[in-house]
Specification:
62% of the residues lie in helices and 19% in strands. The protein has 162 residues and is α+β, with helices and mostly antiparallel strands. The chain has a domain of 107 residues.
């Protein structure tokens, strides 16, 4: 199970997506305020604490689904065809997650613009490592899918030789 390379790739997907719970996606600074966009929501960081301005429950739910599906695919090692199908679905899910992540980023940016009647030049945006992790997950998912197909082809060739 773990000795197969696609299992390692799928485990790396689960780890990358789990790290999103601890990292920031983006940080906005300007107007003597700081704002943080994470998987948990969009927060205004102040002296009194964090104030949630926008929730990200859909983003969090899709992330949990990606993690659970990746782990399920690892333990479904006896049925390679099902693994290929679920890995392809996981690829679509991760791509949808990236789209949803940038949608939340755009919503957060427009929320700041509306609140302060500003232009984009007055706000500084710093992207966190959280923006790169889903893209890394896409690469790992592609590599896992390719390894699964290669494994399936190897089994077909071995059956044909018998």
């Amino acid at each position: 199970m773990i000795q197969r390379i696609q299992s390692v790739y799928l485990l790396l997907i689960a780890i990358c997506q789990a790290l999103l719970f601890t990292t920031a996606l983006a940080t906005f600074t300007g107007y003597d305020s700081s704002f943080n966009l994470s998987l948990m929501g969009f927060y205004k960081i102040g002296v009194a604490g964090h104030e949630m301005l926008l929730n990200s429950y859909a983003l969090m739910a899709v992330n949990i689904l990606i993690i659970l599906l990746s782990v399920f695919i690892i333990f479904n090692f006896k049925n390679r065809k099902k693994q290929i199908l679920f890995t392809a679905f996981n690829f679509l899910l991760i791509c949808g997650f990236v789209v949803l992540m940038f949608y939340h980023y755009d919503n957060a940016k427009s929320l700041i613009d509306k609140a302060y009647n500003s232009s984009e030049a007055e706000i500084s945006t710093t992207f966190g490592i959280g923006m790169m992790l889903p893209l890394l997950s896409i690469v790992f998912n592609f590599m896992a899918l390719r390894a699964l197909k290669k494994d399936e082809e190897l089994v077909k060739n071995a059956n044909r030789i018998r």
